[in-house]
Amino acid sequence: MPTPTPPSLADQPALRCDAQANLERILASARVVFAEQGLEAKLADVAKHAGVGVGTVYRRFASKDELIQALFLSRVNDIVVIADSALANDDPWAGLVYFLKQSGQKLADDQGLRELLISGHVESPAFAEARARMSERMTVLVSRAKEQGKLRQDFEPTDVPAIMWTIQASRDFAGSRCPDLWRRQLGFLIDGLRQSRECVSELAAPAITRDQIASVMSMRHHTPDATSVSGQRPRS
């Protein structure tokens, strides 16, 4: 019986290129799927969007959590970078406002990231380190703005996640019908943080209309898998 001929070295780079192309396709699709569906999305959803078999995804990632870690760690670190930019601002109040707006935009654009930061769905040393670095920066951002006298003295760093929850609720409630509603609500929240109310923020979006509210409620009522205001899917 003839001995099977092993793959030549010339064939291996092509195989590696195919594998790399599949990996990039999987990650690109995962960004879209998790951003739209949140962390409840399945690997089968990612595979379908990428146009590959589920087995191909599992060959690259042993579990959904492993894919989430590969995909979102860089995005969590992006929030840390935003905090560093805020701290570099010579005006502590402006730095805090910059952080709230920029991190809010990141969260509004990506449902998976919102759920990941708020729920702690995946815990790993890398994520724990990123969370710790973010917490340290929040403490400094808040302390600076208080010392400046522009941030109310009873605001605490732990109030920042609550603001993020508000952004999540507003973004998830309004959906695609009013995607900028969270920006308007954040404007009200920022004014509420001021020690002095002599000036108010220019709101970034108009008020939602009665027709838009009716449209949003109708859409949510007729969508079987619509998420609740808290971002969680209703229990059956």
TrEMBL record:
It holds the Pfam family TetR_C_43. The keyword DNA-binding applies. Residues 42-61 bind DNA. GO terms for molecular function: DNA-binding transcription factor activity; transcription cis-regulatory region binding. Residues 20-79 form the HTH tetR-type domain. Keywords: DNA-binding, Transcription, Transcription regulation. The keyword Kinase does not apply. This is TetR/AcrR family transcriptional regulator. It comes from Antrihabitans cavernicola. The lineage of its organism: Bacteria, Bacillati, Actinomycetota, Actinomycetes, Mycobacteriales.
